[in-house]
Amino acid sequence: MFTFHTPGRLLAAFVLLSGIIATAAEPAEPKPQIAAVGAPFGVGDSAGNIRLNSTGSAAIRWVARRTGTLSRLWVKTRTATHGGAADSSYYAGTTGMWQVNTYATAADGKPDTARVLAGERFVPVARMQHDSTEMGNATGEAIGLHLNLAVTAGDELITVFQNVDPKPTENYASVNFLYSAAGLQGAQGRNERDRAAADSLYGLDPREIVGGMNKQTWYLPGNNYGPFAKFLPTYVQQYSDGTAVGQPYYTAHSLESGKEVKQRYIVSEEKTITTIGAFLTAADEFSATIFINGTRRSAVTLSGKADQFVSTPLPEPIKITAGTIVEITATPHVAGSLKSLYADSVFNKLIGLGEKYAWSFADAPARTVPIYPVYR
Questions:
Q1: Could you report the per-residue pLDDT of 304-314, keeping only the tens digit for each?
Q2: N or C end of the chain: which has fewer CB within 10 A?
């Protein structure tokens, strides 16, 4: 209720009411939100490696993505092809002797050591050279663990890597993962046991993590020297029918400021886009524009701090059908606020990353940039 006592107050009330009417007639652009709207794929700052240079172990807890025979589980390693001198932080000496066992997972998330499903012992550099060469890339650094397991989609398993060389501090190699300097958020930042947990933000099942054992104590998440929730699982599951799926990205490259980025998505089914999301690795604010089959449809502003998932709702949802090409363009104002993520060349070949994949970075199709549509 308005009470007017003077002409001055009457004028002020009229101006205020006019402002309210004007605002109602012209909806404001949706505001950026800091929200737990995750990317459909792994995101991070760089590569991170766990050196197997002690009696401790490293582990990937992973979930079968399909039902069938899982012939190989591919992992990213650092042995002798890249990484600098032989005494680098990645490897040393002969690269050691790895014992790699895959177990069923117990209720607490640890390996059920009474249920060894597959096991191998090998010299990492020799296996890497064999497997990467077999995939047509002698300088790749991927290892394909020979599992040959019958799995059902949703099965939870854990693969444990241990260097059993008698001199592990002198002869060792590393397992590599996508790394987040500020620490993983949501389900991947803890030992999640609920497969329905809603805050899995990296395109993974919420139970999938990197862990390790140090002095007979398991750290999940963690590594072979203690708690460390900064590694995101990096793997490719290869099935006997040739299908390969997984979280292939293991590192990232900073994109320059002032240059337009275009990220492309090929949609496989009917959906409704409600929001544009992004993962920022440096504080920034910029406009993101969405195109549907080449036609500009809408734009929003995205902003946030470093190592944040951010999102902004579209002014109006956009319905799309199977086969639609969705493109999102943005021009970051701060170098490194957006990064292109990339995988080992062997992983590229296995999964088929590129222009015809579900997502791709227009400038380098085998890579991807964490700016994405969010569906209802």
A1: 999 999 999 99
A2: N
Rounded CA gap, 184 and 189, in Å? 5
Q: What is the CATH number of the domain that holds 258?
A: 2.60.120
Length of the chain: 376
Place of tokens 């930042």: 189
pTM of the complete model: 0.89
Per DSSP (E only), the strands in 152-283 are 156-163, 174-179, 209-214, 217-219, 231-232, 235-239, 244-247, 249-254, 261-266, 271-280
Indicate whether 134 and 112 sit together in one domain.
yes
Q: What's the pLDDT tens digit per position in 50-68?
A: 999 999 999 999 999 999 9
Query: Token pair of 290, please?
Result: 């969405």
CA 316/CA 166 separation, integer angstroms? 63
Same domain, 59 and 192: yes
Residues 270 and 336 both lie in one domain: yes
Write down which residue in 231, 250, 269 finishes a domain.
Answer: 250
